[in-house]
Fold:
Amino acid sequence: MGALNDLEGFGQAVWLDFVDRKFLEAGGLQKLVDEDGLTGVTSNPSIFEKAMGHGNAYDATLAEYDKQHTGAATIDRYEHLAIQDIKAAAETLKPVYDKLDAKDGYVSLEVSPYISDDTDATIAEAKKLWGMVDRPNLMIKIPGTLAGGPAISSTIASGINVNVTLLFALDAYIRVAEAYAAGLEERVKQGQPIDKIASVASFFVSRIDSSIDKEIDARLEKGDAEAEALKAVRGKVAIANAKMAYQWYLDFLKSDRWQALAAKGAQPQRLLWASTGVKDPSYPDTLYIDTLIGKDTVNTMPPKTMDAFRDHGTAAETITQDVEGAKRTLAEAERLGLDLNGVTGKLVEEGVASFVKAFDDLLGSIAKKQPATA
Structure:
């Protein structure tokens, strides 16, 4: 038992932000489940680009697929590879899913970033991927864009688990939480069960600090008159933002709307802390784990961050600590003109763009691996 295992005692699940064929085949995921209490896996276009776009781990599988599907489109070749990995991860996590009665044990697969602003296309692709993977412990990742909201409601109403990704701002998160509730309410109207439907809202953390800190550093370099005040909020805005999202979540659980759903067995949509790898080397490498531990939360960690917390992390309920301090930090950031709303809006656009680029690169790499008979 180590620090990662200790998080379960505070109600936080540990998920891995990483998928790779060699890692799965070598039993790496099973080891994390057995030794660290891991209960979930997330993937995204950037992760698959790193896995598939480099080396030859997928070449044999792709060659076999190409023999059976002459002239297959590049996107179909990619989906075949990705779905094999997702199925393998889902199988590893199925005992966790069963043991926890569908409350955890999930693996996430993202819809194409090319359709992030198209509600109907997102709904259609979510249903397609759900059918292709055909595992109850799959979550379909849908971006928390304006178009994503109605897609989330519709997908949940169809009985598909959803991981909402690319959330940065509190108002975007509230919209997503309400979309989840609306989807459950629609299922209730249809006379469908809701107790096995699960969702997480993935709130990105470190990217907020990276953007805010960059602006702070630029102002400090110019000799800003508010230098001391700026230094005081450096590296604290993202955590304060996440703490306020959690406070909203706690209030929502008490609402009549949620209580009516809970009475029918609804599972809360857990907040998931994403982008938890530290970008600034001056910060502790476990910063975005240490400060965001609490009930009904998930922290999805890249392997390096997981290793760091296993080695020297400390588990304690921190997400509810010093909420007043978090409010002051956000108020001070606003006073200083750091424009958190502008930053979070831009980060959504940048996040979609980065996934599009990764997907472009990934499909380009797969396209180059043409069948020998082509």
